[in-house]
Specification:
mainly alpha, 4 helices, elongated, 0% strand, 124 residues
Length: 124
């Protein structure tokens, strides 16, 4: 392995482990919110939103540990669908940056998947 390949492989490992650690933190914090606040949706549209955030993004991050591309797509797709549902039902996008921070590992998993495929690096 030449110097450039080793550097690329190291970069992929850093992105992968950053995504994994961040996903644990995101899912853990989401679970703390659910335990502390509970889930009390009052309308079907609220249940629909919950399917995608937090459950869809969490499922995507869990799957991404084995299938980075699939898990990243599920996480990013769930976030986008959640934003669409929120916009359609509330008349605007969710306020604040926390939604993106919770789902950010999904985008890192996608980046790692892309870089791994581009360089032919191992997925371990």
């Amino acid at each position: 392995m030449d110097g450039r390949s080793q550097t690329q492989s190291l970069a992929i490992r850093i992105v992968r482990w950053t995504a994994r650690i961040w996903s644990i933190a995101s899912i853990g914090l989401i679970l703390l919110f659910i335990i502390g606040e509970g889930i009390n949706p009052t309308a079907p549209r609220e249940w629909l939103g919950l399917v995608f955030f937090p459950f869809g993004i969490s499922l995507g991050m869990i799957l991404a540990w084995r299938k980075e591309g699939l898990g990243g797509i599920i996480t990013a797709g769930s976030l986008l669908i959640f934003y669409g549902i929120h916009y359609a039902t509330a008349g605007g996008f969710p306020k604040g940056w926390a939604w993106l921070v919770f789902a950010a590992p999904g985008f890192l998993f996608l980046l790692c998947w892309y870089l791994s495929r581009k360089t032919g690096a191992a997925t371990a």
